[in-house]
Amino acid sequence: MGNPEKQVxxxxxxxxxxxxxxxxxxxxxxxxxHLLLDGSSAPLYKALIDSNIGQDYSAGTxxxxxTKQATFSVGLQGIAExxxxxxxxxxxxxxxxxxxxxxxxxxxxxxxxxxxxGTKYRTSQYGLALSHRIISSWVYDIDPEVELSVNKSIExxxxxxxxxxxxxxxxxxxFLNNSKKLTFIMRPDDSYNDYLVK
Length: 198
Fold this sequence. Notes:
Helix content is 54%, strand content 17%. It is of the alpha+beta class.
């Protein structure tokens, strides 16, 4: 399906914080993930999606704090074999640039506003979404109230952010100087149909 020259997927995953012990850092990393990935003005979106190197983000892209040890993944699907290293290099370059130049206050305010709305906006699936949000933390013995106290988390974030260097230190610690990462490359197998016939 699609362009036969663009059938490769690549993703890099970083082992992040212990969600059981660092709930405020988990919240800060959620914000950082939104800033990096979400929307057409996000730096990784502009560098990876708008450049038309691939079709879309690879599956699992984003910050996942549903387990005791959080992870962050980013990558592309529908790329050419020759572009695998290019995607990985672009990702590192963008992270380095974000550490050096930071994010606009408008983008940060937008993300905080969306997080606030996400907890207050009632839909037909509100109860289910609420349960899903707290159950993974509850499993790991984290007080569910921490997950539900978004306003407190936002206030804590603002105090930390005002001190300066918050995102710079998170990018340094969890991306640029993190040796606990995995690069995943998925390539099509030309002999797969023959294997199915056997």
